[in-house]
Amino acid sequence: MRAMSESTPSFATPYRTHTCGELRATDSGVTARLAGWVHRRRDHGQLIFLDLRDRYGITQVIVDATQAPLAHAAASRLRNEFVVSVSGTIAPRLEGTENVRLATGAIELRASEVEILSEAKTPPFYINEPDAPIDEALRLRYRYLDIRREPMLRRLLLRSRLVQAIREIHHEHGFVEIETPNLIRSTPEGARDFIVPSRLKPGTVYALPQSPQQLKQLLMVGGLDRYFQIARCYRDEDLRGDRQPEFTQLDLEMSFVDEAAVIGFVEDLAIRVMAAVVPDRPLLQVPFPRLTFEEAIERFGSDKPDLRFGMELVDLGPVLTDPTGSAGSGFRVFDEALAGGGRVGAIVAPGMATASRSQTDELAELARGYGAKGLAWLAVEADGSIRSSIAKFLGPERTTAVIARAGATPGDLVLVIADRPAVTADVLGRLRSELGSRLGLADPNVFAYCWITQFPMYKWDEQNRRWDATHNPFSGVRPEDVDLLTTTSGDLARSAPDDPAGRARALQYDLALNGWELGGGSIRINQHDLLARSFALQGQTAAGMAEKFGAVLDAFEYGAPPHGGIALGIDRWAALLSDQTNIREVMAFPKTQSGSDLMLDAPSEPEPGQYAELGLRYVGPTRT
User: Fold this and answer.
1) Mind listing the pLDDT tens digit for each residue in 30-86?
2) CA nearest 61: which of 45, 81, 84, 77?
């Protein structure tokens, strides 16, 4: 057996001397024992060929009846996915039979002994065909088999490298890794809590954490200075491609820092993680671009823009109004929107001027689904002529002005939305994202990070007549906006949509990657009085604050350092790095869209007596 360096781990066990991905041509003549699953079996009578697979790779095994009759007899019983241990001698493959697609493709193991360790039923889908289409429900039902398949295994290994790199970089920078509890008090954090009834204190519940927000701030008050953990979090909300009821995030907090210090560390972390996990794939721009929230919405219609392509939003207002600023485009939909304080905006879809009526109707339906009242369009034909259903209302001069303002050229399609400013930006931003994907405008090999800063501190909740935090209730306010944390009435308990608080900007920052929100954080309020003032604007009474946030408020009475942090989604990060659009593809045992675990058949009814010992009974609709 060849010597190994001290830095190379040994995988030798009583069942194997090497892994199935380890041996090379230089190992010819070595006696080896391998263990794994039968990936493929080809029976040629006297010769049986096995592809033996483990996590590390595949090695071809040859069993010759004339050389090893007992081993050949055992190999004759094998089927795909049997678990075996095979002993023999490593030999070079015959010239012309090498497999350049395998790292072990220059050698084979000529077996002298075959031991069946475990037999296997015929799997419900092919393990050895990575590109075979398989129903996702079947994959989730037999997830342990799906994990054997090369694509799923590759993604889980990438995720492991991601977490390993994150941990190593944090420890290099003096962070302390601390686990926080999963049974905590329910607090308002933007989503519905999963609750756990307490048997020891009947009538009370724990909540599973949506994030360790209060706990990591308390660690800063405790003087830990730099904390991180790979945290499990739970949110009982409707699921989609980038959400699961339980998920994993990198959670970190730092003391005596400002916004620039946190952003600087996290950006360096991201750059180093990329170099460690996907070293061959480029970053679009370093340092990462920084956009204010207002700029991101204005230019891209999104606070998580994909910067791999342009198609920026254009305000058409200046060419649709007369010299006095009054709406006078001649098209009633535009004029009414502008007169009511709305916005007429556009994006330019390159190369779509030839879109058919059915295609433009489909885009209009898509826009209505996003919340718009309708969609107008103007196509610039190859000869420069303009085709549009609204050109007759605008007239030739204004139509030309709209095309020029949008920056459209022959072959382009201009899509126009007229509505309230927020709706116009949101719908155009969604159309931009959809068309960027359809038209292949984003380089799939490139990663484009960007920071979004200066978020609004609050958003108005019309139903409850109060201000809600746009991120989390502990976010700090920009120093120049502290005086805006008040109401028009002067009474923090009597909020209104036109309060100065609505203009306050937070010390909040998000990190976006290729059109996904990778994570967000903030510099926290560390002063008891200012935190109480912010909570009051959010409709919290003194008693309510003490009940929900008492530990933090009390801790701040004993000296809290300036502190801030961020949480980054591990599942989303791994999905993006492995080119997946659904985080289920990078999770070992995810839930379905309805929150079910098809493999473990969860959630399930409790055992008889479990409700009783918790002092509970089920009063919902009859289960079928």
Assistant:
1) 999 999 999 999 999 999 999 999 999 999 999 999 999 999 999 999 999 999 999
2) 84
Q: At what angle do helices 213-221 and 542-555 cross, to 10 degrees?
A: 40
Q: Is there a contact between 530 and 562 (Cβ–Cβ < 8 Å)?
A: no
Report the 10 Å Cβ neighbour count for 366: 16
Rounded to an integer, what distance in angstroms lies between the CA atom of residue 198 and that of residue 200?
A: 6
Distance CA 14, CA 12 (A): 7
CA-CA-CA-CA torsion sign (105, 580, 80, 19): positive
Q: What are the start-end ranges of the E strands in 480-601?
A: 508-513, 516-523, 563-569
Torsion over CA: 601, 603, 608, 614 (sign): positive
Q: Which amino acid is at 441?
A: L
Distances in Å between the Cα of 495 and the Cα atoms of 500, 503, 506, 548 are: 10, 13, 18, 21
Residue tagged 């330019």 (tokens): 348
The model carries a pTM of 0.93
Q: How far apart are CA 507 and CA 564, in angstroms?
A: 9
List pLDDT tens digits, range 379-415: 999 999 999 989 999 999 999 999 999 999 999 999 9
Q: Using CA atoms, how far apart are residues 247 and 477, in angstroms rounded to an integer?
A: 29
In 3D space, the residue among 318, 322, 344, 348 whose CA is nearest the CA of residue 333 turns out to be: 344
- pLDDT, position 369: 97
Taking the C-alpha atoms of residue 485 and residue 505, their distance in angstroms, rounded to an integer, is: 10
Residue indicated by tokens 């050895």? 128
In sequence order, what are the beta bridge partners of 80? none
Write the pLDDT tens digit of every residue in 311-364.
999 999 999 988 777 888 889 999 999 999 999 999 999 999 999 999 999 999
Cα–Cα nearest to 270, from 568, 581, 586 = 568
